[in-house]
Amino acid sequence: TAKAAGKGECRFYTQDMTRAANEKLSLRQRLVQALIQGEFRLHYQPQVELASGRVVGAEALLRWPQADGTLLPPDHFIPRAEETGLIVPIGRWVLREACTQWMRWQANHNVTLDLSVNVSVRQWEQPHFLDEVREVLRETGFPPERLILEITESALLADPEDALALTAQLSDLGVGVALDDYGKGFSNLYQLQRLSVSHLKLDRAFIQSLPGDRRARAIAQSAVTLASGLDALTIGEGIEVQEQLDALLAMGCPLGQGFHLGRPVPPEEFQQRHLMGTRPTR
Ligand code: C2E
Ligand code: MG
Ligand code: MG
Ligand code: MG
């Protein structure tokens, strides 16, 4: 009967809801578990001085190895980690792990790379964020002037007064701030004028359309010009082919990152690929 069918549908519906809720809950629980068991890994992608081809930095990118051998990329779990607040302890681990890894490289190769670490707005807005950064620097012995915290445009411009104070304090510490995915949100140029930002990371969306698209070229060029006027460095993100690199170089863009220059790889591979040729400096 219609009534029975209705009931059936209803039960089906609530089962679906429960399943959805469980899956959500279990992702949160699995994130907690992963954090406690030390399951997370960091991969590192080289950042390159475009004119010389020299690797001058590394961006740490979070990976979550799964039981089936696959690596879960951050887009699949960071939104949930942000919703649940778990991004705060996860991000704390990321910063400590990346600084520790860098110190190992430094000891083995005497490298002087910059280290870029992504920071979510949920971490950034914690009252003790700055203290935690200081603590990690102190405990690991990491040189502050080598650290760059990457924060998205929207996050940095969300709470302008806080961002102003925090970027100033980081800058006092010697730590750089990179505006990630630049051009993707609507930049508040007035805020940008007031903030201490050391790097603008021009979003991949613009790089992809280079060199053919005149409008993408105009925007890329304006970002490079703007950055240099603010004493910041532009990093072109997501460079996949030589033509894109050439276009950026012609615009005076100093730095780049992308599959064409090197994919994100585990630390051992980063060392082999990008640090082995490095001559120890005295
Ligand atoms: P992002 O910070 O903008 O990082 C750049 C992303 O672009 C990375 O994706 C990288 O693998 C990818 N990429 C680099 N070069 C190319 C290229 O040439 N072509 C293409 N198609 N992609 C390229 P990934 O590793 O999946 O990370 C995605 C986002 O997740 C990051 O974007 C960042 O917003 C976030 N994320 C990653 N690690 C962390 C972390 O430790 N903490 C926080 N809060 N967020 C993180
Ligand atoms: Mg980034
Ligand atoms: Mg980016
Ligand atoms: Mg991004």
From TrEMBL:
Coiled coil: none annotated. Residues 24-278 form the EAL domain. It comes from the Bacteria. This is Diguanylate cyclase (GGDEF) domain-containing protein. It comes from Deinococcus hopiensis KR-140. The lineage of its organism: Bacteria, Thermotogati, Deinococcota, Deinococci, Deinococcales. The chain holds residues 324 to 605 of 605 of the full protein.
